[in-house]
Amino acid sequence: MRRRLSKWISTGVVVVSLAGCSTVTPIPTTVATPGMPNAELALQQSMAETGREMARIGDMRPAAAAAARPKVAPGELDREVSFQWSGSLDDGVRELARIVGYEVVIRNASIFKQRPQVAIDPRPRRVYDLFRELGEQAGAKAHVRVDPQHHLVEVVYLV
Hints:
By secondary structure, the chain is an alpha+beta fold. It has a domain at 75-157: DotD protein (Phage tail protein beta-alpha-beta fold, 3-Layer(bab) Sandwich). Helices cover 46% and strands 18% of the residues. The strands form three sheets. A three-stranded mixed beta sheet has the order 3-7-6. A hairpin with a 4-residue loop joins strand 6 (142-147) and strand 7. Helix 5 packs antiparallel against helix 6. The longest helix is centred in the N-terminal third of the chain and has 20 residues, at 2-21. The radius of gyration is 37 Å and the shape is rod-shaped. Keywords: Signal. Residues 1-19 form the signal peptide.
Protein backbone atom coordinates (compact mmCIF):
# COMPACT_ATOMS: atom_id res chain seq x y z
CA MET A 1 0.00 0.00 0.00
CA ARG A 2 2.81 2.30 0.87
CA ARG A 3 4.48 1.51 -2.37
CA ARG A 4 1.33 2.22 -4.27
CA LEU A 5 0.85 5.55 -2.51
CA SER A 6 4.43 6.65 -3.18
CA LYS A 7 4.01 5.66 -6.83
CA TRP A 8 0.91 7.90 -7.12
CA ILE A 9 2.63 10.76 -5.34
CA SER A 10 5.73 10.59 -7.54
CA THR A 11 3.53 10.41 -10.67
CA GLY A 12 1.56 13.44 -9.45
CA VAL A 13 4.75 15.44 -8.83
CA VAL A 14 6.01 14.65 -12.36
CA VAL A 15 2.65 15.60 -13.92
CA VAL A 16 2.46 18.90 -12.00
CA SER A 17 6.10 19.71 -12.93
CA LEU A 18 5.48 19.10 -16.61
CA ALA A 19 2.22 21.05 -16.54
CA GLY A 20 4.09 24.13 -15.29
CA CYS A 21 6.45 23.96 -18.29
CA SER A 22 3.66 23.70 -20.83
CA THR A 23 2.44 27.32 -20.52
CA VAL A 24 3.95 29.85 -22.97
CA THR A 25 3.86 33.57 -22.33
CA PRO A 26 2.64 35.30 -25.52
CA ILE A 27 4.80 38.19 -26.82
CA PRO A 28 2.79 40.98 -28.44
CA THR A 29 3.98 41.94 -31.94
CA THR A 30 3.54 45.67 -31.34
CA VAL A 31 6.24 45.92 -28.68
CA ALA A 32 9.92 45.73 -29.55
CA THR A 33 11.79 43.81 -26.89
CA PRO A 34 15.46 44.83 -26.57
CA GLY A 35 17.67 42.27 -28.22
CA MET A 36 14.77 40.53 -29.94
CA PRO A 37 13.97 41.47 -33.56
CA ASN A 38 10.38 42.44 -34.22
CA ALA A 39 9.34 41.64 -37.78
CA GLU A 40 6.34 43.98 -37.83
CA LEU A 41 8.30 47.02 -36.63
CA ALA A 42 11.14 46.24 -39.03
CA LEU A 43 8.65 46.08 -41.90
CA GLN A 44 7.03 49.38 -40.86
CA GLN A 45 10.42 51.12 -40.67
CA SER A 46 11.47 49.70 -44.03
CA MET A 47 8.24 50.86 -45.67
CA ALA A 48 8.61 54.35 -44.17
CA GLU A 49 12.20 54.60 -45.42
CA THR A 50 11.17 53.42 -48.89
CA GLY A 51 8.37 56.00 -48.93
CA ARG A 52 10.81 58.80 -48.04
CA GLU A 53 13.24 57.75 -50.78
CA MET A 54 10.47 57.49 -53.38
CA ALA A 55 9.31 61.00 -52.45
CA ARG A 56 12.88 62.27 -52.81
CA ILE A 57 13.19 60.64 -56.24
CA GLY A 58 9.82 62.06 -57.26
CA ASP A 59 10.99 65.58 -56.39
CA MET A 60 13.98 65.40 -58.75
CA ARG A 61 13.77 67.53 -61.86
CA PRO A 62 14.88 65.65 -64.97
CA ALA A 63 16.07 68.81 -66.72
CA ALA A 64 18.56 69.52 -63.94
CA ALA A 65 19.96 66.00 -64.04
CA ALA A 66 20.03 65.51 -67.83
CA ALA A 67 21.25 68.82 -69.22
CA ALA A 68 24.88 69.61 -68.59
CA ARG A 69 26.34 73.02 -69.29
CA PRO A 70 28.75 72.82 -72.22
CA LYS A 71 32.30 73.87 -71.44
CA VAL A 72 32.78 75.31 -74.92
CA ALA A 73 30.04 77.04 -76.88
CA PRO A 74 30.22 78.88 -80.21
CA GLY A 75 30.96 82.59 -79.92
CA GLU A 76 27.43 83.73 -80.70
CA LEU A 77 26.01 81.51 -77.93
CA ASP A 78 28.80 82.34 -75.47
CA ARG A 79 28.37 86.10 -75.55
CA GLU A 80 26.52 87.84 -72.76
CA VAL A 81 23.41 89.81 -73.56
CA SER A 82 20.79 91.62 -71.54
CA PHE A 83 17.51 90.06 -72.66
CA GLN A 84 14.16 90.71 -71.04
CA TRP A 85 11.06 88.78 -72.03
CA SER A 86 7.58 88.15 -70.75
CA GLY A 87 5.23 86.29 -73.08
CA SER A 88 4.88 83.10 -75.06
CA LEU A 89 7.73 80.61 -75.32
CA ASP A 90 7.67 80.62 -79.14
CA ASP A 91 8.00 84.38 -79.43
CA GLY A 92 10.72 84.52 -76.76
CA VAL A 93 12.79 81.87 -78.55
CA ARG A 94 12.28 83.64 -81.91
CA GLU A 95 13.43 86.98 -80.49
CA LEU A 96 16.52 85.50 -78.81
CA ALA A 97 17.39 83.49 -81.94
CA ARG A 98 17.07 86.66 -84.04
CA ILE A 99 19.66 88.36 -81.80
CA VAL A 100 22.26 85.65 -82.52
CA GLY A 101 21.24 84.96 -86.14
CA TYR A 102 19.76 81.49 -85.67
CA GLU A 103 16.70 80.01 -87.38
CA VAL A 104 13.78 78.70 -85.33
CA VAL A 105 11.77 75.52 -85.97
CA ILE A 106 8.68 74.79 -83.88
CA ARG A 107 7.47 71.18 -83.85
CA ASN A 108 4.12 69.78 -82.64
CA ALA A 109 2.79 73.30 -82.09
CA SER A 110 -0.80 72.22 -82.75
CA ILE A 111 -0.85 70.25 -79.47
CA PHE A 112 -1.42 73.34 -77.33
CA LYS A 113 -3.90 76.06 -78.18
CA GLN A 114 -2.33 78.29 -75.56
CA ARG A 115 1.47 78.24 -75.56
CA PRO A 116 3.48 78.19 -72.31
CA GLN A 117 4.19 81.64 -70.89
CA VAL A 118 7.76 82.46 -69.84
CA ALA A 119 9.51 85.42 -68.24
CA ILE A 120 13.20 86.38 -68.34
CA ASP A 121 14.66 89.16 -66.21
CA PRO A 122 17.08 91.64 -67.86
CA ARG A 123 20.31 90.75 -66.04
CA PRO A 124 23.17 89.90 -68.45
CA ARG A 125 23.72 86.20 -69.18
CA ARG A 126 25.13 83.96 -71.89
CA VAL A 127 22.75 83.38 -74.79
CA TYR A 128 23.08 79.62 -74.30
CA ASP A 129 21.96 79.98 -70.66
CA LEU A 130 18.99 82.10 -71.74
CA PHE A 131 17.84 79.38 -74.16
CA ARG A 132 18.22 76.85 -71.36
CA GLU A 133 16.19 79.01 -68.97
CA LEU A 134 13.41 79.33 -71.54
CA GLY A 135 13.34 75.54 -71.88
CA GLU A 136 13.27 75.03 -68.11
CA GLN A 137 10.36 77.42 -67.73
CA ALA A 138 8.42 75.50 -70.39
CA GLY A 139 8.68 72.50 -68.07
CA ALA A 140 7.10 69.27 -69.26
CA LYS A 141 5.23 70.97 -72.11
CA ALA A 142 8.19 71.65 -74.41
CA HIS A 143 11.94 71.30 -74.94
CA VAL A 144 14.21 73.96 -76.40
CA ARG A 145 17.09 72.44 -78.39
CA VAL A 146 20.01 74.45 -79.72
CA ASP A 147 21.95 73.09 -82.72
CA PRO A 148 25.02 75.33 -83.13
CA GLN A 149 26.33 73.39 -86.14
CA HIS A 150 23.26 74.24 -88.24
CA HIS A 151 22.51 77.59 -86.53
CA LEU A 152 19.11 76.25 -85.53
CA VAL A 153 16.91 76.41 -82.43
CA GLU A 154 14.06 73.90 -82.10
CA VAL A 155 11.05 74.20 -79.83
CA VAL A 156 9.55 70.72 -79.54
CA TYR A 157 6.16 70.46 -77.85
CA LEU A 158 5.70 67.19 -76.00
CA VAL A 159 2.60 65.05 -76.30
